[in-house]
Amino acid sequence: MYSMNWSVRPDKRFRLALGSFVEEYNNKVQVVSLDEDTSDFSAKSTFDHPYPTTKIMWIPDSKGVFPDLLATSGDYLRVWRAGEPETRLECVLNNNKNSDFCAPLTSFDWNEVDPNLIGTSSIDTTCTI
C-alpha cells in the first residue's frame, strides 16, 4: 500500500481506497469497506491504475449529494466513479503542453467548498487548478 483515503460520505461509512506501489506501469487501486454485521473489511472494487498513485482522495462530500467520485494522481489526474463491483474512469486531466514529457503529479487536493475544483502539484513545481 502506498496511498489511501477514507470516504466521508454518510451513506458509505468505513470505506477506504488503497493504492498499490509497484515500481512499474501496472498498479492497482482497491476500494474496501466494513461489513458492520461481521466486522470484516472486504474488497468492493479493484481496478488497474497506470503507475503508483501518489495520492488518492474521495470527493469531500459529507452530505452525500454529489456523484460518488474518487480522484487519483500519478502521471495524470484521474477521476473515477465508484461502483460495486466496478469503478469506472470518468476523465483524465492532463495539463502537459509538451507531449514528449510527462511531469508526474506529486499531490492534489479537492476543494471542500466547491468540489468542482481540484488543485494539483507537479514534480516540475507547477501548480494547476
From TrEMBL:
Gene3D superfamilies: YVTN repeat-like/Quinoprotein amine dehydrogenase
Organism: Triatoma infestans (Assassin bug)
InterPro entries listed in its UniProt record: DCAF7-like (IPR045159), WD40/YVTN_repeat-like_dom_sf (IPR015943), WD40_repeat_dom_sf (IPR036322)
Descriptive protein name: Ddb1-and cul4-associated factor 7
Coiled coil ranges: none
Keyword set, alphabetical order: Repeat, WD repeat
